[in-house]
Amino acid sequence: MYKYNDFDEAFIRARTAQFRKQVERRVAGNLTEDEFKPLRLMNGLYLQLHAYMLRVAIPYGTLNSAQMRQLAFIAEKWDKGYGHFTTRQNIQYNWPKLTDVPDMLDALADVEMHANQTSGNTIRNVTSDHFAGAAQDEIEDPRAVAELLRQWSTDHPEFQFLGRKFKIAVGASDHDRAVLKAHDLAVRIVKNDAGETGYEIIVGGGLGRTPMIGKVLHDFLPREGLLPYVESVLTVYNTLGRRDNKYKARIKITVHENGIDEIRALVEEQFALIRPTFSGYDQEFLEEIRTHFPAPSYLNAPLAGYETAYENDPVFRSWVDTNLTAHKNENYAIVTISIKKHGETPGDATSEQMRVMADLAEEFGHDELRISHEQNVILPHVHKSHLPMIHARLHQVGLATANIGLVSDIIACPGMDYCALATARSIPVAQQIATRFDELKLEHDIGALKIKISGCINACGHHHVGHIGILGLDRAGVENYQITLGGDGSEDATIGERAGPGFAYDEIVPAIERLVLGYLDLRSSADETFLAAYRRLGAAPFKSILYPEAKTRNAA
Prior knowledge:
The chain is 39% helix and 17% strand. The chain has 556 residues and is an alpha+beta fold. It is globular and about 60 Å long.
């Protein structure tokens, strides 16, 4: 993983010292909250319903054991003993005192971490495939490109006060594990017919109030053009994007209102102008960055213990079958640790759990951890002989739930339990759904099913791209939950279709249960997933399951 140099260290320390003085001025009353707001947002500090919230960047989701232990320490010392992993591969602390935040930032700097640009109208934390460097299907490790973009965008003077926030993701596989098409800009590493490596550039994606799937702006950009091209996109957006209405200020609206062809022409014009100014230094820097992401020194050990455990322990076998993904090294596995134990808050990890995951990464995982946009934690490089020990250690701290990709592996935003923008609760609904399907003991029979829930129109829970999406809204002071169907956050990205009228808080879980049980009767075989069945049959039979009273009225 990337290691700070002297410049990085000095930069982060200076930013923290600057913010410490700003906090002192706010506490002393020399800054009003309105004056303080843009300063705190530049340092990842929000004001939520009950307290401040600090959002810490985990660039492209990569951590080592020392960093994970420091996150545990921060949670214990200055918060309430836990942190919340987000859909942007970040971690949030929901209960810090304002006066403690500079100390928290100093503690982050001690392990080469920060909270810069995790909020505000700027380029946010660059995200990537959480299996990067380990996946069988990747062209190359995309994290070097993500790091290049992170460094280029950090404190970029032209892009610190954009019309709205700007989110970038990087991937390198045909199978999209980073929801690329839901980002303002996405870079997909590809090969052309000649076998040359370059970039597909996608723009104008985004969820929220106006969900849109990104469009291809350039189908094959040569390597040396990446930074000037991305800078050209940002310059065009910064110039052309609307600032009269914050709900229409994202680049997706700019693309929609002007058309992808006009945006492409303007970007190409800007690209021709600035490309000569880069002079190849960015490619030299990228090659230096690549040296920070070497493949691990793989172990050569027998697999007998793993094979024996798999054959004789059904609990271990279920965990292996559900939570493991094939690694590019056949003797290794990618382990996804579920932070979604039935009935718990999706994405929350205690200090104890964080330390256990750090220990496992250090002992068995080549000192690497990843945070996924699905709010789980990954050990990307694990020799199969170590899997029984890892499973046993995870089980001791409630992290061995075998539910990755199943009904209870729900993405959920904090909702009205924490967020000042939320209009409904997300966490209790997610907990109740997970608990109910655990009671039914049907998760593994149901198979792959992605449920995502957001507590407001901003869609931090990615409900638009859930196979089943749930959106919590306020209807005359009463929580009301809309259901969307058929969404997909993969390479076949699709915005889900609203099923019909919303459900009250006490009706939403029974509605989801009715929907999923009805799907079991509709599917053509045990192998047909919910999404495949929806695409085959269309919305009508699923709507009939959700709204049986409408079917009865029509029959009458």
